[in-house]
Amino acid sequence: MNWLASDAAMVRKLIVKDWQVYQKQLAGFVAGMLLAMGLVGMGTPLLASAGALLLLVLLLVVGSYAIQSSVMAERKEQTQPFVMSLPVTPMDVFWGKLLANFAIFLVPFLLVGGGLLALVLGTPRADGAVPWLVVVALFMLANFCVSLCVVIAVDSEGWNVFAMLALMTLIGPFLYWVSTMHGIREHLQGDAIVWSPQVLGLIGGELAVMAIAILAAGWVHARKASFL
């Protein structure tokens, strides 16, 4: 099985195609996130909570919309056969879709993650929340990564939607779990940034989940000799 793309230039064209289709919608999402960041930065508990919730919702929406418009919509609207007619291999399409969606998602993800870290470190807020922010941010990235890999590897729209909704429902319980976990909760209100074993273990687990998801989706495509 060949895991590498056969034509890097073609993969780059596939990435640019998806980026150009999505860039206007992405600009709208980024504008909404900047507004939400402003609410968080105002400092009052009510506005900060509203802004944080809006950021979470927008991150979920931007990820699911990118996946649906660049992968699921092509199957539903029968535009994927056009891509198949190009001189590309299944792995070219796999890397093109994977990297294009990551590029699209990483723009708002880095904006939100970097902005929240700057707010914590640049204001009187407790710096001890930094590890918690990193763990939650990586969970959101892993959530997106697994959703994307399932959609790329599985042709069934029903299973794709089920997987995305199931992963979204894990966010609330995960936030509660990490906020009450020993090694995290006692440092949330402190000024010291403590990378406890629990935090490092969660970070390692999240990175491992993303790697496994990418490898599994790549394995499915690498087994294909052609699109037929």
What string, H for helix and E for strand, traces the elements in order? Answer: HHHHHHHH
- Uncertain runs with pLDDT below 50, 5 residues or more? none
Q: What does the average pLDDT come to?
A: 83
Percent of residues in beta strands: under 5%
Biggest beta-sheet profile: none
* Fraction of residues in H or I helices: over 70%
Question: In a few lines, what is going on in this structure?
Answer:
The protein is built from eight helices and no strands. The chain has 228 residues and is mostly helical.
Task: Give a description of the structure.
Helix 4 runs antiparallel to helix 5 and helix 4 runs antiparallel to helix 8. The longest helix has 34 residues. The chain has one domain. Helices cover 78% and strands 0% of the residues. The radius of gyration is 19 Å and the shape is globular. The chain is mainly alpha-helical and 228 residues long. The protein is built from eight helices and no strands. The two termini are 17 Å apart.
List the helices and strands and how they pair.
Layout: H1 8-41, H2 45-76, H3 80-84, H4 90-122, H5 130-153, H6 157-169, H7 171-180, H8 197-222
Helix pairs in contact: 1-2, 1-4, 2-4, 2-5, 4-5, 4-8, 5-6, 5-7, 5-8
